[in-house]
Amino acid sequence: MKDILVLRDIEQIKAVSHPYRVDILEAFAEEPLSAKQLSELLSEPHAKVNYHIKILLNAGILELVEEKVKSGIIEKYYLPKAKMVIMDKSILNSAVYDENVARTLNQVSISLFEKISDDFYRAAENDEVKSKHVRHYNQYYLTEEECKEVMDSLEKKITEILKGKDKKGRENTRPYNITLMGVPDLRKEKKAKK
Fold first, then answer.
1. Alpha-carbon distance 24 to 22, whole Å?
2. Cβ-count burial of 99 within 10 angstroms (0-12 exposed, 13-18 middle, 19+ buried)?
3. Are 123 and 186 in contact (CB under 8 A)?
4. I want to staple 12 with a disulfide (CB 3.0 to 4.6 A). Which of 7, 17, 21, 110 is the partner?
């Protein structure tokens, strides 16, 4: 398994734009899993898991790594091609000109937000999680370019801070999702225009 897979076409991005497919990818550790094992891990019907596996497989995000015969049935085992997927910047830049790409990227953003929201609520409702690390800054008026500059600067700094901290096994650690969002406040924008 590679460390990073760069998604360079819109079909690959569509494949990961569904929150359930993100769940499937995150269910993997280092060892291959079958559709049956994934359906048990995710508590979902086998047919549903199979459907989404085929989409990820056809997009080149999952790969078939082994086939075993069990009780006369061929069981297929899969692994993600990489530990992490990222989008090629040229696709992000083309969203400015291509409505289909922009729509797909919006769907990816919505799926990611839904997943982050689920994680947030699960942590907030868990009494064992003592502290929730949330920072919220609002009431800043920025141009699109200024917001992108802030996000790029924060991403660079956070990547520097988190370098080497993506490995399991260090003492007293638990997995965290670190999220940056620069979201226009459309409610206030509408009020300002009235």
1. 5
2. exposed
3. no
4. 7
At 23 the three-state DSSP class reads: helix
Contact 60, 12 (CB under 8 A): yes
pTM of the shown model: 0.63
**pLDDT for the residue 194:** 60
Place of tokens 């569509």: 14
Q: What is the pLDDT of residue 67?
A: 93
Gap between the Cα atoms of 89 and 71, Å rounded: 47
Would you tell me how many other CB atoms lie within 10 Å of the CB of residue 21? 21
Counting as low any pLDDT under 50, the low residues of the chain are none
Two structure tokens written together for 119: 């994680």
Give pLDDT tens digits for 107-158. Answer: 777 877 887 888 888 888 887 777 667 777 888 889 988 988 998 899 899 9
- Report the distance separating Cα 62 and Cα 59, nearest Å: 8
The candidate with the shortest Cα–Cα distance to 49, out of 84, 21, 29, 71, is 21
pLDDT given at position 172: 84
Beta strands in the chain (DSSP E): 2-7, 33-34, 62-70, 73-80, 82-87
Pairwise CA distance, residues 101 & 9, whole Å: 10
Share of the chain above pLDDT 70, in %: 92
